[in-house]
Prior knowledge:
Blueprint: E1 2-7, E2 10-16, E3 19-21, E4 27-29, E5 44-45, H1 59-65, H2 77-88, E6 93-102, H3 110-127, H4 130-154, H5 157-166, H6 170-186, H7 191-195, H8 210-230
Parallel strand pairs: 1-6
Antiparallel strand pairs: 1-2, 3-4, 5-6
Helix pairs in contact: 3-5, 3-6, 4-5
Amino acid sequence: YQSKMLLHSNKELVNSEGNLFHYLGxxxxxxxxxxxxxxxxxxxxxxxYVSGCAIAFHKDVYEKLGGWNEEYYMYHDDLEMxxxxxxxxxxxxxxxxxxxxxxxxFSRSVQMVYYMERNRYLAILHFYKWQTIIIFLPILIVxxxxxxxxxxxxxxxxxKLKVFLYFIRITSWKKIFxxxxxxxxxxxxxxxxxxxxxxxxxxxxxxxxPILQYFGNPIMNLYLKLAKKVIxx
Length: 233
């Protein structure tokens, strides 16, 4: 369950009414900067996952999910928990009558970039079936090349290099395979089912720009539509 999160700086605007999955491992808030509907009171199922900022579990659900994975330190910890819930067929809900005022600030610090990129790839490697990863490999390579260029221009190329160095370590892959084995053993839903609730576009105002809007998003969205015609597992 997640509370409705409003911006502390402007309590009339929504910060998050849940988070959305992007099929390439990104996560972003749903309803950001939207005018708050004060009459909304009915608990509703989320398409995506609950935000870790204002979350509550039943104890048995938390234990079934295996708790938080410490490998997702700092970023995408809630995405990791939400993806596990999807795999187990556990639904997530928004509770509009529960309000949290969030002192929200989106700042792409150097440290943030490292953990967001690293943990995005961890989620892909932990949760998708291998054949799904193979299907997505071409678009993942194109995206990674774009992220390298973006990182160099943005001055955080060293952090992108650190992500690369993390994934060439044998110890990193041992952890990945251990986590993957646990997850794939307990999963109850298919990638085909899960992808029906994943987004093809990154729809987040804080990082919106013409290249993403007119080039990146259309390509990623088209790729997902085509991939879903092939993926049956």
